[in-house]
Design brief:
Residues 189-382 form the Fe-containing alcohol dehydrogenase-like C-terminal domain. This protein is an alpha/beta fold. It has helices at 22-29, 40-44, 47-56, 74-87, 98-113, 185-204, 210-232, 237-257, 261-273, 277-292, 299-307, 319-333, 349-356, 361-364, 371-381; strands spanning 11-14, 33-37, 61-65, 91-96, 122-123, 133-137, 149-154, 159-164, 172-175.
Length: 382
């Protein structure tokens, strides 16, 4: 067994109705004024106001930055940082999916250390602790509340840059399953498959360890056993709890084991064509699972058992059975089959492949992958 290290330096609060504990966590952070980073969709649904009401009744001042869009940009980070600094806020509440959390983490860096987020691109360039963040996920998908990554689009390069530092981990993660029980079915589906892929790629990653395996296996058990019923009925409290817990465990798994080709290749798809991250991942998954089968050493069968509706013991398992099962799952959830269905065109494949190869996830993929391999995989997914 190879050497490995891990830590879980956060306070994680889970429970139906636990949103009401937000003032308690702000008090622990020593903050009397918070900035909510979220989006207009959650504002229209009344979710943002619900959060503001909870803290304002406790005498805590608030300011909001709600202009977050999918695949957030460097300009959004700069605008949010300006609001944070000028308001005098002393903590950030990241409310939403991965996009608000990515921005909140970037703001936490720039508010403390200045400069542009592009200066922190790469690994371990954040010099120390950032502004305190309380992460409140409203989707069961990204796991950003427990990960050390911020992914921001640099529109000048059509490139999704990644800042990786354990300093980015939110101080608190507040997981209330009620927050995901009103999402639309396609959001539930694409985010749920994204969470499954986080666990899946961490489990097959060259960086996997017994710790990350434990997190990944529990995540796949919870998500694989509940994603169909959750998409069918988001009011199913038991399924919602399982999905939110599974997403969190998947996030911890890949925070310590990295990911693989799926995520390396999905980021350029989103950067060039604006495809939602979970959808891009879901479309790429069957193609890359088939490609990685050559490197499998028994883990495909375990994954199959987690996601298959058939709970009978498998006889004579073959990797193609897993490929067929994930295609079946995608289809049942309404995930598009090909990249062309979501607007991706072949002319951008060479540049997307170049950008995908810049990802550190390529090195963690179980099967060695070259630039030509990536181009081939894109064309197969097209």
């Amino acid at each position: 067994m190879k050497d490995y290290t891990f830590k879980v330096p956060q306070d994680i609060v889970f429970g139906v109705g636990s949103l009401k504990r937000l003032p308690e966590l702000l008090e622990k952070s020593g903050s009397k004024k918070m900035m909510v980073v979220s989006d207009r969709g959650l504002e229209k649904l009344g979710v943002v106001q619900k959060v503001l009401d909870i803290v304002e009744t406790e005498g805590i001042e608030t300011v909001s930055f709600l202009d977050i869009l999918p695949n957030p940009t460097v300009d959004m980070v700069n605008a949010a940082t300006k609001v944070y600094k000028e308001s005098g806020a002393t903590s950030i509440v990241a409310l939403g999916g991965g996009s608000p959390m990515d921005v909140a983490k970037a703001v936490g860096v720039l508010a403390r250390y200045g400069g542009s987020i592009t200066e922190y691109e790469g690994a371990h360039l954040v010099p120390g602790p950032i502004e305190p963040i309380i992460a409140i996920p409203t989707t069961a998908g990204t796991g950003s509340e427990v990960t050390a990554f911020s992914v921001i689009t640099d529109t000048s390069r059509n490139y999704k840059l990644t800042v990786f530092s354990y300093e980015l981990l939110p101080k608190y993660a507040l997981l209330d399953p009620e927050m995901i029980m009103s999402v639309p079915p396609m959001v539930a589906a694409s985010c749920g498959i994204d969470a499954l892929i986080h666990a899946w790629e961490a489990y097959t990653s060259l960086g996997a360890s017994p710790f990350s395996d434990a997190m990944a296996e529990k995540a796949m058990e919870l998500i694989g056993g509940n994603i169909r019923r959750f998409v069918a009925n988001r009011k199913d409290e038991e399924a919602a709890c399982a999905m939110m817990s599974g997403s969190m465990f998947a996030g911890i798994a890949f925070a310590w084991a990295r990911l693989g080709d799926v995520h390396a290749m999905s980021h350029p798809v989103s950067a060039f064509f604006g495809v939602q991250h979970g959808v891009a991942n879901s479309i790429l998954l069957p193609v890359i699972v088939e490609y990685n089968a050559l490197a499998d050493h028994g883990r495909y069968e375990k994954i199959y058992n987690y996601i298959s509706e058939d709970k009978e013991p498998v006889k004579d398992f073959k990797p193609e059975m897993l490929v067929a099962e994930i295609k079946k799952l995608n289809a049942s959830l309404g995930i598009p089959k090909t990249l062309s269905e979501v607007g991706v065109t072949e002319d951008k494949i060479p540049q997307m492949a170049v950008d995908a190869m810049k990802s550190g996830n390529i090195a963690a993929n179980p099967r060695q992958t070259t630039l030509k391999d990536v181009e081939m995989l894109y064309r197969k997914a097209l």
